[in-house]
């Protein structure tokens, strides 16, 4: 019987293992093993229920315009557990010039599509607004050369739009430094918009005109919002996927140290505490910097390319408060903080406003703060007490919150967010070319062509499909 070893039990590895389990159930002559170095499955998807609070360590939602999560939820029988965000409160504040400013309505990504809310918004100064409007006249870029997100936004919309909107809002998704992030690898849509319309504003307005009318809600189905999640948090997805696997084939608390390629075409995977295990195919879903360590024996250059993908370090701090202790209204999705403000937290999400089912009752609220990212990484290494104090001090200054939390939980993500810097797509193309020349060996995960959970599901499933096709040859 042919055997596939999946390394890493995050959403990518679970998706691969889930496909292999389905293949086993459908009678395919294949066996698999999922090996995860931590004592739990899920990787960066980490939900805990603490005293009735649904606490997210990593992702708290998924983008609904990509099918990956919906397909997996439907397949595993938890589609009805998907919930929309509470869009009646869909407001975001930007802490700029030492005060909270509402992000103007109609801001799609970076670009204002509604003139009035944008014109009256105090977030961007008048010179800054005029500079953004110059996007209508600035000629499009003539070369195909990659540029950073920062350079692109400065060139088209000006520095104020970069500092107050693009860096905290768009750069925040990758916890990245916009002056290093590759535009081609992170937001290729902006390049198409510029090339097709000569201007981001024109492209957005054209897109709005073409947008189909929102479909009436299907009875019994949740309203589709831009971001969605599960009633029990994102961990509900990974827990359900894990429950569908054969537990005898899943090994947690076991790290792969290195992989050896046999001369007859197979592999030997060396697993700490388990010894060497032979495999006909290997799917490596550990983050790139960890993957780099285990592939040195197979391909030194591949290992070097993997090691070159930088990873940013960040932390999330979940805090619960009694609603009656809160002197501020938190009727919004949260706030973002531009780096230029020099603060110690990057953002705050009002989790219990954004989502239902986050607190044990209506008398409590849940807030999540973000620390670190490509800048300020050292703050992540404060001890728990210092980190809690630092976050509370920041919340006091930023939103005027002075209450003491009734519950808190800190999650640290050391090298947890891959940075798609300039040259990323070339590095990934090289890694893919080298894996294509290593039959039966696949590398997949959030480090390469999309950090979003739906992207990871797709690449994990594809790796398993490719491995099965290879083994059936
Ligand atoms: C704070 C935070 C917030 C985020 N928010 C969102 C969001 O809201 N929406 C969204 O779509 N995405 C979000 N993301 C991104 C998304 O969570 C990740 O891109 C995705 O979960 C990555 O999944 P993965 O399986 O590729 O990697 P991982 O989840 O990192 O899984 C890889 C696994 O490999 C294991 N491993 C590593 N080395 C070895 C080894 N040698 N042997 C065995 N196992 C090994 C690791 O322990 C880990 O469990 C967020 C990420 C973070 C950190």
Account of the 3D structure:
- With 473 residues, this protein is α+β, with helices and mostly antiparallel strands.
- It is 34% helix and 22% strand.
- It has a 7-stranded mixed beta sheet with strand order 8-7-18-19-20-17-21. Strands 12-2-1-16-22 form a 5-stranded parallel beta sheet.
- Strand 13 (256-261) and strand 14 form a beta hairpin.
- The longest helix has 19 residues, at 453-471.
- The chain binds flavin-adenine dinucleotide.
- Flavin-adenine dinucleotide (FAD) binds at residues 7-13, 35-38, 43-45, 58-62, 255-256, 285-287, 290, 294, 314, 316, 413, 416-417, 445-446, 451-453, 456.
- Residues 7-13, 35-38, 43-45, 58-62, 255-256, 285-287, 290, 294, 314, 316, 413, 416-417, 445-446, 451-453, 456 line the site of flavin-adenine dinucleotide (FAD).
Helix tally equals: 16
Q: Which fold name corresponds to the CATH topology of the largest domain?
A: FAD/NAD(P)-binding domain
> Ions, cofactors, ligands: which are bound?
flavin-adenine dinucleotide
Quickly name the level 1 CATH class of the largest domain.
Alpha Beta
Task: Report the average pLDDT across residues.
Answer: 93
The N- and C-terminal alpha carbons lie at a distance of 14 Å
Count of individual beta strands: 22
**What is the strand arrangement across the widest sheet?**
8-7-18-19-20-17-21
The biggest beta sheet reads: 7 strands, mixed
Class from secondary-structure proportions: alpha+beta
Total of domains: 3
Q: Compute the gyration radius: what is it?
A: 23 Å
β content, as a range? 15-25%
